[in-house]
Structure formats: C-alpha cells, structure tokens
Amino acid sequence: MQNIHKNCFLSSKKSTFCLALPFVPSYKSLYANTCFMTFLSNQELNVRKDFKHCNTMELPVQFDNINRRVVDDLKEKLTAASSLSVAAASFSIYAFEALKKELEAVHELRFIFTSPAFNKETAKKQQREFYIPKLNRERNLYGSEFEIRLRNQLSQKAIARECAEWIRHKVRFKSNVSGGVMNGFMNVADGKGNDFTYFPFNEFTTTELGIERGNNLCPGVMRLPSPYAEQYIRNFDELWRDKDRFQDVTDTIIENIETVYRENAPEFIYFVTLYNIFHEFLEDISEDVLPNEATGFKNSEIWGKLYNFQRDAALAIINKLEKYNGCILADSVGLGKTFTALAVIKYYENRNKSVLVLCPKKLNDNWITYRSNYVNNPIARDRLRYDILFHTDLSRDTGRTNGLDLSHINWGNYDLVVIDESHNFRNGGKVTTDDDDNPKENRYLRLMNRVMRQGVKTKVLMLSATPVNNRFNDLKNQLQLAYEGDASNIDGLLSTKNSIDDIFRQAQTVYNRWSKLPAEERTAKALQDALSFDFFEVLDAVTIARSRKHIEQYYDTAGIGKFPHRLPPLSRRPKLTDLDNAVTYNDIYNLIQKLNLAIYTPSDFILPSKRYKYMTGKESDKDFYAGLSMSGRERGIRRLMCINLLKRLESSVASFRLTVERVREQVNGILEKIGKADLNNVTVDGDLTPDGLDMDDSESDVFIGNKKGKVCLADMDYISWSGYLEKDLKTLDQLLQKISAITPAYDGKLAQLKADLQEKFTHPINGNNKKVIIFTAFSDTAVYLYDNLAPYIKERFNMDTALVTGDVEARTTLKLKSRQKLDFNTVLTLFSPVSKEKAAIFPDTDGEIDVLIATDCISEGQNLQDCDYLVNFDIHWNPVRIIQRFGRIDRIGSRNAVIQMVNYWPDVSLDEYINLKARVEARMKVSVLTSTGDDNPLTTEEQNDLDYRKEQLQRLQHEVIDLEDMNTGVSIMDLGLNEFRLDLLAYMKDNPDVEHTPNGLHAVTHCRKDTPEGVIFVLKSRKDALPLDVKNRLHPFYMVYIDMDGNIVINHLSPKDLLDRFRSLCKGKAEPDKNLCHIFNKETRDGADMSRYSKLLNQAVESIVQTKDVSDMECFLTGAQTTLFTGRKAEPDDFELIDFLVVRKEGSVC
C-alpha cells in the first residue's frame, strides 16, 4: 500500500499523471491533509511494466465533467443496494433532481457538511467575513450560484417536495462543528465489496456532477477504486460516529426544504424582497442614526395624534437628520406636515435639544398655539418649548419677535431649525450693500452664516409643499443648508458616483433639454426617465414627498377615512355692478395703465449733478438704476403697488376704492410740499411704503432691512416730477368717480356671493352641513364682506359668522360668555369643532360658527375639515395659494362625502387678465422718464412664469388640481425609498432569520383595478454580469411587473412605483390566501408545470435587457452617463430570481 502511495508516478512522452494520495491511519489527521492531482486524458496513461501489481486492480478513472461526467457514471453505478457516504460543503436539491430516479432507489445516503452548516448557534453571530460563507453554504441547499438556469425554470417547489420526502426515508445529515478542516469526497458501496470514491467532491451540486459549468479552472474529479475507497469509508465511519464533532442536522434540512414548497403569505414575500434589496442598509446603519425610543417620544401626545403615514414620515425624518443633517418634508397639501414636524420637535426636545421654528409671520399664531399652555392646544401635555422667529427676522438686527430680543439672539446655539415654507429660501444667497456702503446678506445667507455655520452643529428640517418651482437649483439651495454649502460634508455620506454639485448640474441640463421637447412629449415621466440614478439617490437620501394619491393607494386608511370627493369647481364671473351704463373691469384696467405712480420713484428725478449725494462709494450710475440701491428699491415698490391695484380691484370694489384713496392722499401731500417756497428745507421719502398689500407682497425683500432714503426737493427736477404727479392725480380722481356709484347695494360680486350662500344654506351638499369658508387675499375685503354679510346671515338664516385676518381683531356674531376671549384659535375651534376638538377645549361653550371669512393667514397648517364648501372670493395670482386654501377642507379623514370649491373670476377673459399683468409688469420695470409701455418686454423667465400661471389658472376653472400636478415636470413627489427601509428595519426586530430564506419563493395575492393579473418578478444581476445601470435605482436588483399575456405593466426603471404596488398588494396579508393558492396550484400541478411562469420570467428578463439597451443609447445620444460600451450584452442567465408575486383574480373581477 505504502509503495503504491509513494511510487504511482506514470508518464508518457506527451503527458504526465501524478497521484499523491494520503492514506492516513485515523480520521484525526484527515482534517490536516490535502490531496493534489494533476492529470490529462486517461487514454494517455502509459503504465510501466515494472508495476505488475497494478495490473490486477481497477485503475482510477478521470472525469473532466465535460466529455466525461460524474452524473453519467453515477447513473450507471448506483443500484438499489448502494449506500452513499458524502462529505461536501453543500447540498443542492437540483443535484437530487438530476439523480432523482437513482437516489430514490438507493439503500441510504449519509451526508457530512465539511464546514459548519445548519447547526444551531449558541454564540453571537460571527463576524461578517466568517458568517457570510456559512450563510452561502446553507443557501446552496436551494441551488448554488451556478444553478441559476435551473432555478429560473421555477420548478423548485415540486423538486423540494420530492426531495424532502426522499430525505425523510433515506438520508441523514450531519454538520462538522469542530472547526477543523475536512476535504470533500463521495463514497459509493454496492454491498458486494465493490467500493469506490469520487475525489475531490466539494459540493453535492449539479456543477460538481458535471451538469452545469462552474468557475473551477480545473473541474476534474477522480473515481478511486478499492483499496483506496475502503480507507475513505473507514475514515468516514469514524467521523460519523463522533457525536461531539458532528451534529445531526437532518430535521433542520427538512425544515429548510419545506420552506420552498409551503404556501407563503404575501406580506412575507414583501419583506423577503425588502431584505434582499436593502440588506446593505441594515449592515451599514448605526444605532446613532435611528430614532431612540428610549426618549419616550412615542408616548407623547403628538405621537398619539399622528396617522400611520405621518409616523412613517417622522421616523424617516429623524433618520435623515441624524445621517445627513437635513431633510425636506414635501408632502402634499392636506397631509399634516405641521403635526409630523411637531413629532420630530418633540423627539429632539426630549433629548434636551434647542429648537428654532422659522416661519412666515402669517403662520405665527399656528406655531404659537402648539407650544403654549392654552386650553385650545391639543398637545399642551407635551410642553413643547421651541423658539419662534419669522423669515423676515433674518434681515433684522434689532426689534422683538414673540418676546425674543433679536439683538441678543444666540443664533448659533440651536440644535434643530424647522423652516416652515422653506421654498422662500430656494433662490439661495446674495450679497448686496446697504445705504451706508456696508455688505448686506440676504435672508438665506444670514441663515447659512449665523445659524448653520456657527456654534453647535445644527440640523435643519424644511417644510414645503412646493420646494421646486421650475429649476432644480431651487432644491439644491435648500439642501445646501444641511451641508453648510460645503459639498464635501455630504458627498461622503451619499451612495452616488458623482458629487452633489455635479448631480444637480447634470439634472438641470436634463431639465433644460426636456423643456424644449414638444408638448406631447414633455411629460413628467419623460423627465424622470431621463434623470440619473445619482439624482434619485440624493432625493431618496434627504427628501420625503408623498402625494394624496400615494397615501390613498398605498396606506391602509380604514381607521382614518378617505379624502372627500372633489366636485367640479364652480366658476363665477359677476360684473362689477348691474347699474345702467356702469363701469366695467376693462374700463378700470385702461385707466390703471395710464398711471405712472411716480410718487414711489423720486430718485428718478434727482438732478445728475446731485446724484452723487445719494449713491454709495461703490456704485455707478448704472448700478443706481439697476436695482442695487435706492432707485432699484423704489422701482420694486412702484411695481408692487401697480400690481396691487389690479389685485385689489379683482378682490372687491371696496378694497380698490380704499387703495386709490390712500394713493391720492399721498400724491396730494407731495404736491403740497412742492408748493412750499423754501425747497432746501423740504425732503421726501425715497421709500414710501404702500399699505394694503397681500401677505406675499408685504414680505417682499424691498421692504426688509433698508433705510428709507430722504431726498431733498432742491436736488430734484421737481417740476417734471410734479407734472407726473398731477397726471396721476387726475387719473386717480377718474377712477374714484367711475366706481363711486358701486355701493354694497349695487355690488354685483357681493350679490352673487349672497346668492351662492343662500343656495348652500338651503341645499347643503352633505346632510345638514351649512359651513362655508370665504377666502380673500386682503384684510380690507374681508372686513367689507363681514360688515355686509354677517348681519344678513344672522337675520335671514339665524347662523353665525366670524372674521379672521392677520392684522384685524377677530370678530363674530356668536355670543360668547363674558370672560371668554375671542382670538384666532377660538374662532377656528368654534368653526370646526370636530377637527379642532371643541368638546375638550370649550366644553361649556354653546353654539358654533357657520361662516368663516378669512385671509391667507389660515391658508396653511390648519385642519378645518368640518367645512365642505370653500369660496375664493378673489383668485390669488399664485395658483398654488388656491390649492393651499382648498387644502383646509380637502383632508384625509373628512366626514364629508363631497366638497365644493367656488371661484370668483374677473368679468374678462383669462387671456386679457394675464396679458394685462404682463403689460403692467413690463412698464413698471423701468424709469418713469423712459417708460412707453412697450419698450421693455419681460424676460424669458418672467414670460415663462406668466405662461405657467395662465396654464394653471385655466385648469382651475374646470378642475381641482393637486400641487404635484402643477409643477410641469419638476416634481420630487413619491420618489423616496426610505419608508421601505424603515418597514424592513421594524420587521427585522422580530424576524431576524429572514436572511436564511431561499430564493425563488412566491406568494399569490388578489389583483385590483390598478394592478392587473400578472407577476411581479424580483431579480438580481449576477456579479459582474451587468454593468451599473445608471437609470435603475435598485441595481443590481431589478423588478418587473408583467401581465399574463407577456406585456410589461411597469418596467424596471420605475422601482418606486413597483415597490409601492408590491407593498399595497402584500402589506397586512400575513397569511396565504387559501383559495388563490388552490387556483394557482391547480394551474401548475403543485409546481410541477411552471412553464407558463417560466416563460413570463424570460420575457421579463428580455424586457430588462431591451429597456437597458434603449436607455443606454438615449444617454449616449444626449451626452449623459452611460454603460453602452462598457461590456457585453446581458443574457437571461445573468439574472437570478429572488422571488415573485403572482397577482391573480379569484372570480371574474379583480
């Protein structure tokens, strides 16, 4: 024996055969020895004559597993008397399937896993580098990485069932738990002393049997006859009897195989999908970036009031704030962004963090309520303590806001800043100079430099339903606050190929190209398809944006209620008055266009020789008139005032009359000053501040932080100025005369409103609900309406009316108790008693308010869903504001089945309305002295803005639209994937073993109207088989939804849509649907005939390859990042099936 072992070296002229076999005396040394073989063809073996003893024994046989395969040899050798003893690293059910007939006939099979597998772990999970190989060995049970072609035939269910039954009767498995090294081999004994061993035999898979090709450079296997085989079997027997080092795992193997053919719940398959796609998120995540429940924030009052989708958002926001330092919450109107933000604030305050809320002034009362110890504060028990400052406070160094002295504010000491309406900061930073030649930062730079970059590390949560207007830089400018304007602070945190600056630059290039497409091709989907993987990675990392459609479709709202149905809007176009020969809108418009409003631009008339007195040292004449100093500010005010006249006429004759009278009074005052003898001692204000602006215009930058310049009349061409003023005075007098006859009794618009209210009160649209909100942009109009409607409504209908504006004291006809104070929040609570919890706050107050007249001070952040009827008495020039107003009653959980919007339009065509504004804006941009009305056309950007407003206002005449539908392509809505990661995170806490789940499982679920019958396949590109797909956000994972006829419902480039549908089809379905499973099993003969589904799988893979080729070519042609020339084309076997969801109907309908 030893001589054979030492001297069996046989050679020929062409080749050499070398055999070195360690025949060890006991199993102990089996761990430490290795067998090496090199060989060529057995036919080239030339046995020397001096080895006569070799002639009487069977020679070893070589299998190259190409021309001669192990599987074919076993089919010849195995008989009913055969006993197999296998030592290998893994076992595959497909190896069983390949030898099914022979293996089912053998006497027995004993199997030892040469390394730990399927054994119970008593210690902590090993480090990743040791744990993953073990996991991979175990997963080979369901097919190795080289058996993908077999797995993709979808027959594993039937195979697993037969394999498990065979194992129960004839197989025992043990696992090497000793930690020692053991070589693989397979021994076959026929019971007649004819033993032989296959060596090396490392895996019991189709690869080692020669059916599939693996990656072994030398795939040969040697069959050794007796007496070599006898030594192997003796050693195997010794190992098999060692219970300490070898643990029986047969039952575990059976249990694992059973998972392949048992019926699966749709929800389980959903989480298996999430685990595969997002498991790296679990590995990389740190406890430091997850919400710490030990803070107790989930026991807070605010947490208890959140809906499920708001809780998801709050948790995701905290995760993003901790990881990326910032987040934009851009949920659509009516989804409760304020309450979501309050939950986040509570979390950080529980961690003893200092919080600042920056909001527009109009929203102050809203934020004040939630932190105050008021009876009408529904979350008073949480005792929130955040500071509240206004956006405009960033432009001031002195003054007080909400009791805070701005001169003493420690701006750099806030741990969290919550910016409400963060889109006000989307234009980014700009440095100008003040009147004393000092550098002056705008609000954005003040926020960046004072708050974000100074003091403690500050996180920023931004709230906006419209974070993007028509350029991606809007979004970038807001996100820069999170990384302090330094891209290096965030680039290392993002899983992107390019830097964030390059990503946004490329995205804007794509948008610019997209904006030039023909209208029929310029769709939101076309833009999304053109944007890169990196761009969506950024959005996913730092934004949360869900639409109402998303919430309705993908969240269980059974316990919340639904959004009410929107009735088509009613459009009213009342005349100014019904008086004979009365003035019309066009008559007024024509007069307004004659106004120069020179009163607001005295610097236009400063004599050239005196101009130096009013310029800064760094200014040129061009700068002086270009908007960088006094003259530029004056023109900004003049422009606002002229547009304001148009807006106020459109609002109400009463409001327009007040404004004309105020301007006339100012003009008269200046003319009186000019008439004085000593002009050297007379000055006029360079910045007359007009009153009566709407809330948006009143916060314009032209009014913030600028010293009002004084201009001496002696330094002016006051004669020319007075000539312009006298012309304006004449025009103003004509305007007043034209509208003098329009009193409340003859006000056509007021009469129409009364008629609409009477119709609503006598014919409610929901039961007996008579509540109405009337919105207007101006306090003057609101007061006018209250004065003329409240007594009428009380007397005629015995109903109560209230008034709420930002600058007039609240009023109501409802009688309150003598000590009860009527303020902003009291009015809203009495108007919407259910949504505002009146029973808890004012249990002793009788009666309710039925009609609420309000300005845009309540157009955001308020839940007034008790009401079902909203009147826009004036159409705000910003269409977004119209949707925000309607969002007060268009809210999820409403008790109203339907809701109604009524819009009051001027009695002119929309084209006339928009064109008039364009002409006014163009005329007011330049000096009074040079303006002709047509000599300064609008810029392309300004004209595009007007066209956009026209398009949206046109739609608002016929439909109620969502904000996300108004963005003409630039939308970040419904693109984030973070909620799926958080779903997985929560599931893994109770189900950590999901990682052991085999690939290829499926579940069957019911189809719906938006999810036709078909299959959603989840696949993975094999390593290096497919280059990075720059358009697929899930790479290397791919999802495809295909119907039963082979048509692609959703391709792999829309993973968010696919995951949303997957979630809605599966979430909450924790048990298999027995009826659907029965239908599916009958169709497939319990998985034995999966040909139809295997064909669909191949079609799905083909669609990936074809879509990627088209996508790569488009990228190449447009100059975008592409993988067109980076490697070979993908093939079906390049994709591994992870799982699939069968979407079927039980009867005739989905």
Write structural notes for this entry:
The chain is α/β, with parallel strands linked by helices and 1150 residues long. Helices cover 39% and strands 14% of the residues. The strands form nine sheets. It has an eight-stranded mixed sheet with strand order 4-12-10-9-5-7-8-13. Strands 24, 25, 28, 29, 30, 31, 32 and 33 form an eight-stranded mixed sheet that branches. Helix 23 runs antiparallel to helix 25 (630-651) and helix 25 (630-651) packs antiparallel against helix 34 (910-924). The longest helix has 28 residues, at 1091-1118. It is elongated and about 135 Å long. It starts with a helix and ends in a 6-residue tail after the last strand. The relative contact order is 0.09.
Strand order of the largest sheet: 4-12-10-9-5-7-8-13
Q: What about the largest sheet? A: 8 strands, mixed
Oligomerization category of the chains in this entry: single chain
The beta-strand count equals 38
Mean pLDDT: 81
Q: Helix/strand-derived class?
A: alpha/beta
Helical proportion, percent range: 25-40%
Uncertain regions spanning at least 5 consecutive residues: 1-55, 122-132, 433-437, 621-628, 701-707, 931-936, 1116-1120, 1122-1126
Instruction: Count helical runs.
Output: 39
Distance between the terminal alpha carbons, to the nearest Å? 74 Å
- Approximately what portion of the residues adopt beta-strand conformation? 5-15%
Instruction: Work out the radius of gyration.
Output: 39 Å
**Shape, per Cα inertia axes:** elongated
